[in-house]
Amino acid sequence: MSKHARTDHPIHDLLAQRWSPYAFDGRSVTPDDARAIFEAARWAASSYNEQPWRFIVALRDDGEGFNQVLSCLVEANRQWAQHAGLLALTAIRTTFARSNKPNRVALHDLGLAAANLTLEATARGLHVHQMAGIEPDRAREVYSVPDGFEIATAIAVGYRTPAEQLQGELRDRETAPRTRRSLPEFVFGGQWDRPADFL
Q1: pLDDT band at residue 1, thresholds of 50, 70 and 90?
Q2: Does residue 63 have a pLDDT over 70?
Q3: Residues of the chain above pLDDT 70, percent
Q4: How far apart are CA 13 and CA 17, in angstroms?
């Protein structure tokens, strides 16, 4: 099944190929691919080059470590993420190292790192599914996350498999057409809610 985006304007094919499946086939991500996707994350832009992101990662082949990350997801996400080839928890440093002042763009910078990771994974034939459904307090306890850092999200990476392995709502989501808001709904010019003239 292909879920290649039907874009209104031409974009790079890697962006059009990217989507977030629930159906993974259980193969582990290779160490070479894991190093590459986190190297891509490493080179994301960040405010003052702070690089506030942190990743707690386990490959599927690391059974105990993988199950430990899995245990930090909400139950609904555990059901499908258990078949991913790599799981990661993301975290941010909430203050600037240079001044100890709050870093209000840390989540933005984590998003840039995650986007880099996702594009590198897509280029390597992997799929990425990012999740908000985690248990941050459990993750903080399990991994002894220090003060000044917040657990933010989780990421599943792996090889997709046909949607038939899924049931119910997950299968419906997997097979549903991809949709997005049109550009005039979020690209404004002159004032709020007025589409930019170039559109």
Answers
A1: low
A2: yes
A3: 99
A4: 6
Classify domain 17-163 at the CATH topology level.
NADH Oxidase (3.40.109)
Q: Choose among 90, 101, 112, 89: nearest CA to 148.
A: 101
More confident residue, 2 or 77: 77
DSSP the chain: -------SS---HHHHH----S-B--PPPPHHHHHHHHHHHHT---GGG---EEEEEEETTSHHHHHHHHTTB-HHHHHHHTT-SEEEEEEEESB-TTT--B-TTHHHHHHHHHHHHHHHHHHTT-EEEEES-B-HHHHHHHHTPPTTEEEEEEEEEE-B--GGG--HHHHHHHHSPP----GGGT-B-SSTTSBPTT-
What predicted TM-score, i.e. pTM, was given to this entire model? 0.94
Strand partners, 56: 89
**Is the Cβ–Cβ distance between 25 and 159 less than 8 Å?**
yes
